[in-house]
Amino acid sequence: EAQVTQNPRYLITVTGKKLTVTCSQNMNHEYMSWYRQDPGLGLRQIYYSMNVEVTDKGDVPEGYKVSRKEKRNFPLILESPSPNQTSLYFCASSLPKSYNSPLHFGNGTRLTVT
Amino acid sequence: LAKTTQPISMDSYEGQEVNITCSHNNIATNDYITWYQQFPSQGPRFIIQGYKTKVTNEVASLFIPADRKSSTLSLPRVSLSDTAVYYCLVGDIPNRGSTLGRLYFGRGTQLTVWP
Q1: Which residue of A56, B11, B15, B65 sits 20 to 30 Å from the alpha carbon of B79, by its own alpha carbon?
Q2: What residue spans of B17-114 are helical by DSSP H?
Q3: Which pLDDT tens digit goes with each residue over B17-43?
Q4: Distance between CA A62 and CA A45 in Å, rounded?
Q5: Angle at CA A78, nearest 5°, toward A103 and A14?
Q6: CA B31, A100, A60 angle in degrees (round to 5)?
Q7: Phi and psi for A35 in degrees, rounded to 5?
Q8: Is the torsion defined by CA of A35, A31, B45, B103 positive or negative?
Q9: Which of A11-25, A29-43, B71-85 is the least confident region?
């Protein structure tokens, strides 16, 4: 089954403790991206990757890092999480954006930073 | 970055047709317009995509005027299960030096369908 898998689904952590949220897709998609969703603010793009080893900032990249060492995986790294990063996070993938192809989203990761 | 503007919320009753309009004044020549539906605590899912005029699939229609500065998602005969947030999405503007990867979803439209 074609899908985007995020792990974990729920995560509670403390300020300053490094964490990684994983994202994997099995559709051989070149494009992957991360979003955060907060009440009243909709979906905001954090980072995106056009292909392996090619990443760039979205609208809200501060406090986040990403890597794209292989095509199927696009982990989101919070080196020193803070309470304002408490949010619902989504990973998505698609064929290259130049094809205007639809995004396929994961089921989300709800992160709480205390 | 091609930003979008949608109504924050809309209400409807079962069986009615619902039209949600999105404004995107800075849409680029090569951009398509894509609509997504999101249920609580789930990732958005693709509904429909178009470039100009009208597109129809089994769940919705998309109307795009000639100037492409807006688009209207039409949901025929909505049911309670259509209660969700609907996002209109256009891509980045390549000639500003950015890549094609920047995307702006905006706040979406909360559609509530009542019995």
Answers
A1: B65
A2: none
A3: 999 999 988 888 878 889 999 998 899
A4: 11
A5: 125
A6: 80
A7: -135, 155
A8: positive
A9: A29-43
Tens digits of residue pLDDT in A48-103: 998 899 999 998 999 999 999 999 999 999 999 999 999 999 999 988 766 567 89
- Candidates B38, B39, B48, B103, partner chain A, best to mutate (most A CBs within 10 A): B103
Interchain CB contact of A58 with B (< 8 Å): yes
Residue A41 has φ and ψ, to the nearest 5°, of: -115, -5
Q: How many CB atoms lie within 10 A of CB B16?
A: 13
Show the tokens assigned to B12: 């409807």
Q: Residue A38 has which token pair?
A: 């907060």
Among candidates A44, A66, A54, A100, which has minimal Cα distance to B100?
A: A100
Cβ within 8 Å, pair B43-A107: yes
